[in-house]
Amino acid sequence: MSDDAAQLSRVLAWVTAFESDLASRPVACVNDPHPPPEDLPESGIGVAASIDRFEAEVAPHLSASPGPKYWGFVTGGVTPAALAADWLTSAVDQNVALPGDSIASAVEARALDWLLQLFSLPDAFSGVLTSGATSANLLGSLCARQYAGLRQSIDVARQGLHGVRTAVFSATPHASMVKGLGFAGFGRDNITTIRCRAGSEAMDIADLRLAMQRSANPGKIVIASAGTVTGTDYDDFDAVADLCAAHGAWLHVDAAFGLFAVLDPEKKPWLRGVERADSLTADCHKWLNVPYDSGVFFTRHEEILLDVCGVSAPYLTVSSDTPAFMNRGIENSRRFRALPIWLSLLAYGREGVREWVQDNCRQAEAFAAWINAAGAYELLTPCRLNVVFFRPTDADQATVARCLNDINSSGEVFMSPGLAKGRAGIRAAFSNWRTRTSDVEQICGLLDGLAPRYAG
Ligand SMILES: *Cc1c(COP(=O)(O)O)cnc(C)c1O
């Protein structure tokens, strides 16, 4: 075996051990490790010695985020198919900027087509793989801006923003969406906030109607949500799309993880009308369980995306039926992130992904039912999808923070803080293919043991 191959074998052995330890190693590394200062080596120490240092200094301080009990944020794991494909992606190191020298762009086109089918979306949509929902939401903001400009006879991509008047309406935008709107020049603090329906994070349609009627801006953009991050609420897309049609507004839907609910026949109706969006965001590194970083942006207006992202340089022209993805996204040079998506969908099919989604929703439901019955804890929002939002009963903010710290310091599970309707709580989100009912039972036991600390 060559020395290079020996190092790869060693890494394979390390990964195999890491994977088999996932259920038993501490789920979170909460001690905030800081490596001591060290100068850049003048001459390298070699691959073998560098991997030694990884094993000694980095590996012990990793979280078990691809494991079954990492319930923070909305975090997917890595399936065997996705891992194999992601390794291949690095090994073959294709640059998916342009077609013409490799099949990689064609595989991305196929992966996008399969994602549309997975999500039951019409092929009027086209798009591009992104590094995540944040960059997909940015593309949504930029396409919406271009569209709003064209309605005012201004080609923003070429002429700039001067003179464009645009209003943005949203009820509960994800923080990354607000960031994207800021990048696009709309102003993070300049979003017209729409009231929520009672007991929900979804938009009150009457309030949206009123706000859109009142706005004198010729450009209008509505940001809707399919699965808000704490309440997992869905907007009424048909009603929102009707209003957008009446006002010539662009409708962007942030469906980062919520789009996967379409795979569950009981939840599919929540997504009715989502196919009327002008643009849509979804994340593959969440419920599709492919490694970071992997998201997708879809739009019905390919010409607008090309206006926004097109690159012109003589050495960059090709003629091919396969898209030049460089002209559809933020980056020119891009990772072959289609491969893990393509290979996962091939390996597990729609049925496999549906099973993860349904299992995770059942686990969330079981955890919520336990919280509800526990007495020592209370749900802050009903669990309808994969998120459980709770706190020790009647706890103030400091007690909630202390409880979350106790939970995460246990090493048994990792959860994240949340805020809904001004109430602080703890969020557990289920989106990992490895999670089992027995994991939920274990964590109910942990919470039971901690409960006396928050009494009174
Ligand atoms: C996770 C999430 C995002 C941000 O996604 P990243 O993949 O972290 O960039 C945006 N919107 C929603 C609704 C999300 O759940």
Task: Please characterize this protein's 3D structure.
By secondary structure, the chain is of the alpha/beta class. Helices cover 40% and strands 12% of the residues. The protein is built from 13 helices and 11 strands. The strands form 2 sheets. Strands 1-7-6-5-4-2-3 form a 7-stranded mixed β-sheet, sandwiched between helices. The protein has a 4-stranded antiparallel β-sheet with strand order 8-9-11-10. A hairpin with a 2-residue loop joins strand 10 (416-420) and strand 11 (423-429). Helix 5 crosses helix 7. The chain is globular and about 60 Å long. The site of pyridoxal-5'-phosphate has 13 residues, from helix 5. Pyridoxal-5'-phosphate is lined by residues 74, 132-134, 174, 176, 227, 229, 254, 256-257, 283, 295.
Average pLDDT score = 96
Strand order of the largest sheet: 1-7-6-5-4-2-3
Biggest sheet descriptor: 7 strands, mixed
**Structural class based on helices, strands and sheet pairing:** alpha/beta
Number of distinct helices: 13
Helical content, roughly? 40-55%
Oligomer: single chain
Low-pLDDT windows of residues: none
The ligands found in this model are: pyridoxal-5'-phosphate
What is the β-strand count? 11
Strand content: 5-15%
Secondary-structure element string: HHHHEHHEHEHEHEEEHHEEHEEH
How far from one another are the termini?
Answer: 65 Å
Radius of gyration: 23 Å
How would you describe the shape? globular
How would you summarize this macromolecular structure in one to three sentences?
With 456 residues, the chain is an alpha/beta fold. The chain is built from 13 helices and eleven strands. α8 packs parallel to α9.
